[in-house]
Known about the structure:
By secondary structure, the chain is an all-alpha fold. The protein has a single domain, classed as Orthogonal Bundle (Helix Hairpins). It has 3 helices and no strands. The protein has helices spanning 6-14, 18-40, 49-72. The longest helix is centred in the last third of the chain and has 24 residues, at 49-72.
Amino acid sequence: MAGQKRRELIEQLRNMNDVELAAELTKQREQLFNLRRNNVTRQLENTALIPATRKTIARILTLMGERSAAAGGSNQ
């Protein structure tokens, strides 16, 4: 998912429901763990995947936060 263009990725994430989004978050976190492990053991060829995966995780968390704020209202 990290190799897609940004707009396509955002649209794909926005079209997911909450369960699919949580599953994608888990998948991306596992991928980040594996990328970091491979980087330490010098098996990772494309190190740019690490920050791209981190940004994808941040986008997912942002969407989840937006949805929870919209569902629960603002607490200010």
